[in-house]
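Hi D.,

Good news: the full-assembly prediction came through. Inputs first.
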Amino acid sequence: MPSNLAIRTQGLTKQYGQAFAVEQLDLEIEAGQFYGLLGPNGAGKSTTIHMLTTMTSATLGDAWIDGQKITDDPVAIRRTVGLVFQDSALDRTMSIDENLQFAAALYNLSPEQANARIDELLTVFGLQDQRNKKLVTLSGGQRRAIDIARGVLHKPKVLFLDEPTIGLDLPNRRSIWRFVEKLRRDEGMTIFLTTHYLEEAVACDHVDFIQNGRLEQGGTPADLIQQLAETILEIDTDKPENIVNKLASLFGEPIREDQQLSFKIIANDVDFSALQKSLGDQISSMQWRRPNLNDVYLWRFCAPDTMGNEK
Ligand SMILES: Nc1ncnc2c1ncn2[C@@H]1O[C@H](COP(=O)(O)OP(=O)(O)OP(=O)(O)O)[C@@H](O)[C@H]1O
Ligand SMILES: [Mg+2]
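Then the structure:
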């Protein structure tokens, strides 16, 4: 394999009984990349991360991290990777310091190294004065910051972030993303992210999608957005059938969410104001705007011809 691949998998598969959580996954992620894996609940994102970090073994297939086959020396792999679990790995009855010292010991950091790194990380999150506070007394955002500090204590080459900002308010999410950006810049870390906040995935160099354990090729967020459509047209109406009858022949079937219809417009010469006038009081409101990554996701997983598969 080329030596600049941080992550590579070949036919990586995880089966639970008869069910495939992840099936025949082939991935190549270059060192230093910010990679995003997106998909619905139960798609296989966490299972992929757990296999790549040796938390769970694959049923079939192979994987390499930083050129090392993960089954050859799992202990070495655990030193190469950092993992921020979807569910916190911290002991709430212990203090910040105890939690981080415990993790540092697992990574064989000397007490001096551990103290210096803990200081550095807590300073980034403004928690340097809270070192002896028990986790149970911290806010959710502060605890998540400690989870992330724990994941990067040993300066891993490859960092796996499984929904790192779930449940956090905007300032806390932003502070975590500033930190991740700093890790990429200062430590050249490769980042493997899963998130349901798609606006966070826009910063990725590349995103792929996963559904029912199968990988679907993605691309750069900008390319995916550009390829999706020129414009997204959203219409609120209490007569959705009438509107679909009128517009589907022009724009294709919309995504329907209750009384909201969302059309994907490829053409760049549609006169939306005239259209709005012609629909008159059959609609309660109408907006047209540029697409974003949320639209890419919705059209991939909730598009008219895929609806019903999952439900
Ligand atoms: N230990 C397990 N035993 C049995 N089935 C499991 C186990 N862990 C995961 N699964 C199943 O594997 C599939 C993939 O789960 P996984 O946790 O990887 O999804 P995910 O993409 O991370 O979802 P979410 O977005 O909800 O976190 C699901 O159908 C799940 O029920
Ligand atoms: Mg998950």
